[in-house]
Fold (2Fe-2S)-binding protein.
Amino acid sequence: MTRRSTGAREAGSRQARADGRARHRPEGRNTLKIVVALRVNEAAARLSLDGPETLLDALRDQMGLEGTKKGCDQGACGACTVLLDGKRVLSCLTLAAQCDGHEVTTVEGLAPDGGVHPVQAAFIRHDAFQCGYCTPGQIMSAVALLDEGRAGSDEEIREFMSGNLCRCAAYPNIVAAIRDVAGEVASHGADSGV
């Protein structure tokens, strides 16, 4: 069998599956779109949703914000972590419709005007990434962890970052980067009398 005939057969098989799915759709299916108004990275946004679309898919497919990564798509790896009203959420498990009227921050929105957020700078300084796929989710969790005041020790950092997996095992460098930023925050707070 030639490569060409195998490819043609696979294309025909894909078309048959698509035709089968189309036949099983109920007649007169409601095509009403759900419109969601929210703020993404401090800018007003409107999403038109066909149904139960995840925040992850809406960010990537509708808004072109591809910094948020699709890893396991089951809430187990943390690669899709974003901030929803300042709290970290797994965007693969969050329906976009639930975000109506809320503020979403992605890794692209951390530093205004194309700058670098202190956590991003620390990740670079401490080489806290290998392949980089998990890095946006790691950074978003680290930002939230620091905002929550949960970086008092390496053990606490590890505990509250445990939902973010790194297949390259850059964990010691990730902890060092977060510890570094936590130290900067603490020293600036001490200097200002806070």
